[in-house]
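We examine the record.
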Amino acid sequence: MSFIVAIDGPAGSGKGTITKLVGERKNLIYIDTGALYRCVTLYMIQNKIGLDETEKIEEFLKNIKIEFKKENSEDLVYLNGEDVSKLIREKEVNSLVSQVSHIVVVRENITELSRKIAEGKNVIMEGRDIGTNVFPNADVKIYLDATPEERANRRLKQNKEKGIEIPYEEILENIIFRDNNDKTSSVAPLKQADDAIYIDSSNMTIEEVVNRVIKIIEEKED
């Protein structure tokens, strides 16, 4: 038996941070689906593969290897044996990842990979369509949201901590573009599942959101 917690929401809503912290506190395996799409995007950029080159995309997806490792209490992402934790967060990937995630073959491949990783485990997973598409029968579904302005501020702070310099205006523009792209996608669009609990974290601290999510999980466990 497995216990699945699905956290969906728009870019920059804090899904990654909250999912990771809740996973640590509740001893759930944290799976960052966004990092999976970012790895595919980075591979396409590095190998100059266009969004419409379906055959090439299908071919490399058969052999691509993505791993999550924890080293010195840091979560790292490896693509074909290389640590790409920082590369997948850079500007070029940010501007293209939403479009890559709308490619049907990519979405299908990552959805299948996510399900395999979670098989028989107690998992917390975040993304755009976890509760609606990847795990429609998840034990707990949460839709985490925040205003575009608040999300841009958070992303700006995160980038600065990682030494990535992108102006606030550009981050906000990218977030608004991604929101529209994700919500209007013909492939697994971003939307709140009917049975998901909505949390607006705009005026909440990280600790408040974590406690709220844990409370929801523990009510389901009882």
